[in-house]
Write a structure and sequence with these properties.
alpha+beta; single chain; 68% helix; 6 helices; 3 strands
Length: 148
């Protein structure tokens, strides 16, 4: 078994704790102020950034959900009129998740809350040098480990 240094293990654990604490705070704020779960916000944001539509498999990859988990999440978002599904013309089994006008409206309404939360719970604790170092470190991990 490979040995991980105490310092690297501590950094890993701090990363996991920080992620859990910050995402919990961001989720609570979105729920309280905009009645929008953080996972829904992330789906809406990914669809918006992709021009309003993504194949379900691409969306699952973008939001780091399993396909089955994403299917259930999108089902609830369809029921709330935030997204709809469209058949993929080039793949009869494939489906697109499509941002609806209501989904775009809810995303716009929640974006300010979310961005303020990122600054409040994450950004304000870091210097510009910290941000660059953290970004560079995480980019190295992603370049080496992220699937293509």
């Amino acid at each position: 078994m490979a040995r991980v240094s105490d310092e690297r293990l501590a950094a890993w654990q701090a990363f996991l704790r920080a992620h859990a604490v910050v995402t919990a705070a961001l989720g609570e704020e979105l729920e309280e102020q905009r009645q929008l779960p953080l996972a829904w916000y992330e789906v809406l944001l990914q669809l918006h950034d992709a021009g309003g539509r993504l194949q379900m498999k691409e969306l699952a990859h973008a939001v780091l959900f399993s396909r089955s988990g994403l299917t259930r999440l999108v089902d609830r978002m369809v029921d709330a009129s935030l997204v709809c599904r469209e058949q993929c013309p080039s793949d009869r089994r494939g489906m697109f998740a499509v941002l609806t006008p209501e989904g775009a409206r809810r995303l716009r309404g929640a974006a300010g809350v979310h961005l303020r939360g990122i600054e409040e719970h994450f950004g304000r604790h870091l210097t510009d040098d910290d941000v660059r170092a953290l970004g560079n470190a995480l980019d190295k991990v992603l370049a080496a480990e992220a699937p293509e």
